[in-house]
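pinned: reference chain
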Amino acid sequence: MINNQLLLAGDIPGAGAAFAWNPSQGSFTLRAAYRAEQTALVNTTAIFGDSGTQNGIFNSPNLGVVELEIAPAKTVAFRLHYSRGTQGNNTYSVLGANLELAISQHIGLFGRFGYAFDFPGNIQAIDWSAGIAFPDLLRRGDMAGISAGQPLKLQDNVLGLFDATQTNFEAFYRFKATDNIAISPVFQVITNPGNLKGDTSFTATLRSVFSF
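pinned: its C-alpha cells
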C-alpha cells in the first residue's frame, strides 16, 4: 500500500483491517488501513515516554493510514498519505507523498517524501528518496535502478542522540529468471549509519522473489 517509513512509526506487528475503493475503475483510488499493535511487544518508552499501553482495538498503541492515489494516465501516479497513531500516551501525525513517472518505455522516475509534524518530543523529522529505473534494460522483464535517500532527517536534534544524517545510495538489477522467479543483486553505500558520524558502510544483498 504505502512505501514511507515515517508513516509507519513504531512499526510493530498487530492485527487490523484494510480496504481499497476505486469508483468506476477511474483514475482515483482511496485506500485505508488500521492496525492495533501487540501491546506486549511495545517498548517505546525511551522516545515516547510512559508506555500507557491498554487492551482493546482502539486503545494505545494503534495506527491508521489513509492514501489517495491519482493516476490520470498509465505513465504517472501520485499518492498522498496521512498517518495518525498513538504510542504510549502520545499521538503523532505524518504527511507523505509518492510520485512515479514513466519518461519513456524504458526510463522511469520515482520519489518519496514524508514529514512528521507532531511527533512526541517535538521531533520534526522528514524522510525522502528519489531514483531512476530502467525497465527491460537488457531484456524484457528485467529492470535496473539507482536511488538515493535519507530515511530519517531531523531538523533539530532535540533528542541529543544524533550528530549527522544517514544517507543511503542503492543500485540494483532485477533479473527475471523465469515467469515465476526473479533474482535481484542489490548494492548499498550508507554514509553516517544510524545518524551518527562514522565510517561509511557497504552492503551487498542477493534477493529472490517467487511468484505463484
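why pinned: The chain has one domain: 5-210. The chain has a mean pLDDT of 83.
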